[in-house]
Amino acid sequence: MRLWGFLFALQALVGAPPAPDPWRYEATLATDSRELSVEAWLPAGVAGTFSVDEGCEPFIADVERESEGQWSPVDQARDAWYPPTDRPLHLRYRFRLEAAAAALHNSNQVSRRAGLTSSVTMASPAAWILRPWKAAANTPLRIHCATPPGIRLVTGLRTSEGGTAIDDTYDHLDYAPYTAFGPFDVDRFASGGVEVQMATLPGTLALSDADLRAWAGEAIANLRVAYGTFPTDRLVVMVLPSGGQGVVFGSTKGGGGPALSILLARTATFEDLKRDWVLTHECIHLSHPDLPRAQHWFEEGLATYLEPLLRARRGIISPEEVWRNFMDNLHHGLPRTGDQGLDHTRSWGATYWGGTLFCLLADLEIRQASGGKKSLDDALRGIVVGGGNHLARWSIEKTLETGDQAVGGHVLRDLHRRLGLRAETTDLDALFKRLGVGIHDEKVTFDEGAPMAAVRRGMAR
Ligand SMILES: [Zn+2]
Prior knowledge:
By secondary structure, this protein is α+β, with helices and mostly antiparallel strands.
């Protein structure tokens, strides 16, 4: 223990270790988008076992290395390639993108999304960047992508050269954010201190750039209500046209970079965007660390709890709508017979509404314990300030401890023991009564004489 402390102290004195030599990739997308040809230059001394994301290996072909102007095949055994790494390495290979999309059909790896007039290929670099199986996390990676006319790269990874090169690090590749090739229009603008890229497919929407900018601006403003700032300095929104109505579906991937994928109905109007909650929900996912599968309930619960409160505080929806939503749905989150706590329950109800109930109870306890001076917002800000945004992979213990430290006490830790590790139930009727929320003649009513009425007013104004 002391030795580690000494080493860290020494490292602090001499500064962080220097970044390793960069790895350079040059990828060319074929005119018909069926294939990527990749050439790579890596320094001597990298780990000698190369591969790609599990399941994507069959689509890597013709791996060769160059030596004194001659190309020769690289040894392959099962799912890995073994080039000599005692000298600087110059590699080339092909990735069969279209075949991978058809076989994998997984938007986290490779898939094709065909629209009426155009198609987009989701192509996570983790699937097609052949790389040493281990390396220093901060190893710089530059992947320049040459695309056919009209086709652009859109990615949540950091980019340079006007968006044509990925300029990021090794660790962000393993959990790479959404990355796609397609005939995108990319509108770049700043909003609330955030550099936004809004990628759309031309001719697919009835909305103007100004409409879409306003939509992103609202989501960023919503986040600032709780966090004071947006949790990241940039935001990439990939808008994919869809059937249905309004904002149909949103998703983000934990880690790698702030990219959201949003399915937006071709018929969506500006009114739909003004009423939308999806973009705010997805942006909240950028503000917490990526947690293990067992605590997916915290990620979804936080977004489900916070999103309506933020919109209510900005006057977009009424407090009545917030409480109606909670009264109608929180019962889905109560433990059922045989449940052993949220950490051990994978149902939709436990994940979304069990998590929401956790956040509501935490918020109430923090507000009560601090006499209304602190709230869950302070704990969440503490987590982001402590480095716990979507780029971090934390345990639930570290996440809740960091939040607890920001407000003092152990509300989050103790609540996790009660609801996460055990299946403590909550008397929701009694809770709503204490908060002074009721329903009469189908309308939400507030009882300002209720013991926790002031706390309730502080949450959704
Ligand atoms: Zn979500």
